[in-house]
Design brief:
The protein has 123 residues and is mainly alpha-helical. The radius of gyration is 19 Å and the shape is flat. The longest helix has 37 residues, at 47-83. It is built from four helices and no strands. Helix 2 (47-83) packs antiparallel against helix 3 (87-114). It has helices at 12-44, 47-83, 87-114, 116-122.
Length: 123
């Protein structure tokens, strides 16, 4: 028996809720990760360390949510190709997105490492 998710038929609210849970889980895990960082630094570090972790978490969240927004835009494109039944274009879109996000990750890594101090001072 094939377990296939079809977002074109059935109840829209049920499909959206089912789609929402993995995203909500990822956001909760991100918040827990930041909270654990603050707990560890708060227990063993200084107030300056707590401030640094808090500032760093905000910057990382900004980058993570921006990249996540770009990824959501890609899902719209893939959904369009699915709706148009143009499965040949889906592979091209996914390949292009993988290359784009690979390049973006290298660029963001370099930028954040080079400009870590100026960003922290601005924060």
């Amino acid at each position: 028996m094939e377990n296939k998710q079809d977002f074109m038929q059935g109840s829209i609210p049920v499909k959206l809720i089912g789609f929402m849970f993995p995203i909500l889980g990822a956001l909760i895990l991100q918040a827990m990760y930041s909270a654990v960082d603050l707990m560890i630094v708060g227990r063993f570090g200084t107030t300056a360390g707590i401030s640094g972790v808090s500032t760093g978490s905000n910057i990382i969240n900004l980058v993570t949510f921006s990249v996540g927004g770009l990824a959501m835009g890609v899902t719209v494109l893939i959904g369009r190709y699915l709706g148009e039944e143009r499965s040949d274009r889906i592979g091209q879109a996914i390949g292009g997105v993988i290359c784009f996000f690979l390049a973006l990750s290298v660029v963001l890594t370099v930028l954040l490492l080079v400009f870590a101090r100026p960003i922290a001072v601005l924060m």
